[in-house]
Amino acid sequence: xxxxxxxxIDLDAAPDKVKELISNTELVASCxxxxxxxxxxxxxxxxxxxxxxxxxxxxxxxxxGITESMADYVQYSISGKGLGxxxxxxxxxxxxxxxxxxxxxxxxxxxxxxxxxxGVSEPIIRKITDEKxxxxxxxxxxxxxxxxx
Length: 149
Prior knowledge:
Layout: E1 2-11, H1 15-23, H2 25-29, E2 35-40, E3 45-54, E4 57-69, E5 74-82, E6 85-99, E7 102-115, H3 122-144
Antiparallel strand pairs: 1-7, 2-3, 3-4, 4-5, 5-6, 6-7
C-alpha cells in the first residue's frame, strides 16, 4: 500500500534557523515521539528505532535513513522493518519566510507499507500520522523556543 501525506507547519523563526534545525538529523530525531537508539552513522546516514502503535501493529521498527540538504529543501529517505512489516518513507521539507522572524515549513511524504501493516486501513494510518506530525511540530516549536499552541 502506498500513501501520500502533506501539510504545513508555521514557526516563529527566520528561515535559515528553521532550515538549520530540520537539517540536523539528531535534533529532528529527538522530536519524534516514541523513538530511541538514534545513531548518526556519518554526515548523511542514520539509524533509529521507533515504537509504532497502529491497530494490530504495535512494537519497534528499526529504521535507517539518509538526509539530503539541498539549497531549497531537505529530504529524508527512510526504510526499515518490524513486526512482520516493512516501510519506506520519503519526506521532503521546504522552508519559506512568512515575516521578519517567521517561517512556514511545507512538507510532503510518500510512504509504502508492506506486510502486516499494509492490512491496516488508510484512514487509521492517516489519523495516527496526523497525530504524530502534530507532536513532532510541537516538539520542533519547543526546540525553537516558540509557544506551543
